[in-house]
Specification:
Length: 373
């Protein structure tokens, strides 16, 4: 069984789906890794490192795209789709909620397609959890970018010429990314506050030494551990608290997401208008609809002296680190699907397979994407 790794061709994508370390492990599992020449360059991995690990290097994407198992970071482009054939396994961050038509295309092609973002967040799944590994790095990078755009200093500085007060940082949404953003701001000496709607998040914020601001609506966490959308009354209560708090903040990083839906709009234009000039907002949810009114992915807009940075693919900006973790997540997942002698043996009843498998045998099999009958 061949396992293919191609260069990612979507805009702003620098990560790669396998590293020399995981290639070596695939080889040891009895698989034959094929790597497109140049696949890892943007993630600081040279061809010779893959070759040294036992991969066969191939010119151009075609041969790697034809492998029985295809590993991807992002969903295939139209050109890549045209090369795929029935029976292949496709594993990657396929972003199915935003690309439902492509899910149909996977079924029509006869692909066995796995969307890694749909992995249940169970203890057993932790080593395969791409959302966590990438969000952790993204949260760190978000705070670094916000700090770099801020033209004052983060820590308190006591100098002979006077004392500089520490920056006030507010993090909205304290999941994996938000908690890492909080930790990064704390390390820099900022005064950090944060909000979320899940009760567990409040405790986690406090355990990092930040102060919780906001309110926890009743039953705001779903059984899967995610947040649910707020009711209009709850939104109004949150808006009242956030609006007041934002007036005194210097740096705001927003990370709030509801899986499968547009990100909740939490910071309005009126709230931005009431902030101090020189403040910086980084909207990590800019690509999924935006937590901040007026944010645009990949752009920085300035409104009334407040800079709003719309994040775009932050993990890709840390491609070497992000690829190491992502590749390891995929390796752990592929080990579920392959028997000891390197043959495919997909355990279709396994909860991790059921949770991620979109299409198989020409049909959409995932309950969230099956057409209504
Ligand atoms: P996410 O990316 O879906 O959302 C980011 C944060 O935004 C979440 O903390 C969410 O509660 C918050 N949010 C949503 N709507 C909001 C609103 N209106 N106002 C304020 N905050 C809002 O979350 P995530 O980082 O993927 O984490 C989701 C859950 O998964 C968490 O419970 C986390 O602890 C859990 N998790 C479990 C494991 C595991 O045990 N294997 C691993 C990782 C994450």
């Amino acid at each position: 069984m061949r396992i293919g790794i191609v260069k990612e061709r979507r805009d702003h994508e620098r990560r790669v789906a396998a590293t020399p370390e995981t290639v070596k492990r695939y080889k040891a599992m009895g698989l034959e890794p094929l790597v497109e020449r140049g696949a890892g360059i943007a993630a600081a991995i040279g061809d010779e490192a893959y070759e040294g690990a036992g991969a066969r290097l191939v010119e151009g994407p075609e041969e790697a795209l034809a492998c029985g198992i295809l590993l991807k970071v992002q969903r295939p482009t139209d050109d890549e789709m045209a090369s795929l054939r029935s029976g292949q396994l496709l594993i990657g961050m396929l972003d199915p909620y935003m690309n439902r038509e492509q899910v149909e295309a996977y079924a029509e092609k006869g692909l066995t397609a796995f969307a890694m973002e749909l992995l249940p967040r169970t203890t057993r799944a932790q080593a395969m959890d791409v959302l966590s590994s990438q969000a952790n790095l993204a949260g760190y990078r978000a705070m670094i970018e916000a700090m770099a755009a801020y033209s004052r200093v983060l820590p308190m500085m006591m100098t002979a010429a006077g004392t500089v007060t520490p920056a006030k940082v507010f993090v909205i949404g304290a999941g994996v990314a938000g908690l890492q953003a909080i930790a990064t701001a704390k390390r820099m000496g900022a005064v950090v506050t944060a909000t979320d709607v899940r009760p567990a998040a409040k405790e986690e914020i406090e355990s990092l030494g930040a102060k919780f601001v906001g309110f926890i609506p009743k039953d705001a966490a779903t059984a899967g551990g995610y947040a649910r959308p707020l009711t209009p009354e709850e939104q109004a209560e949150q808006a009242r608290i956030v609006a007041e708090h934002l007036k005194s903040q210097d740096i705001v990083v927003t990370t709030a997401q509801i899986p499968g839906r547009k990100a909740p709009r939490i910071v309005t234009a009126a709230m931005v208008a009431a902030m101090k000039p020189g403040s910086v907002i980084l909207d990590m949810a800019a690509e999924s609809g935006g937590n901040v009114e007026g944010s645009r992915p990949g752009e920085t807009v300035e409104i009334g002296g407040v800079r709003i940075i719309g994040a775009r693919n932050l993990p890709s900006k840390l491609a070497p680190a992000a690829s190491i973790l992502y590749a390891k997540n995929l390796l752990n997942f592929v080990q579920l699907l392959v028997s000891k002698d390197g043959k495919l043996a997909i355990p279709f009843d396994d909860e991790l397979v059921k949770g991620t498998l979109l299409t198989h045998d020409g049909k959409i099999v995932h309950p969230n994407f099956r057409p209504a009958s």
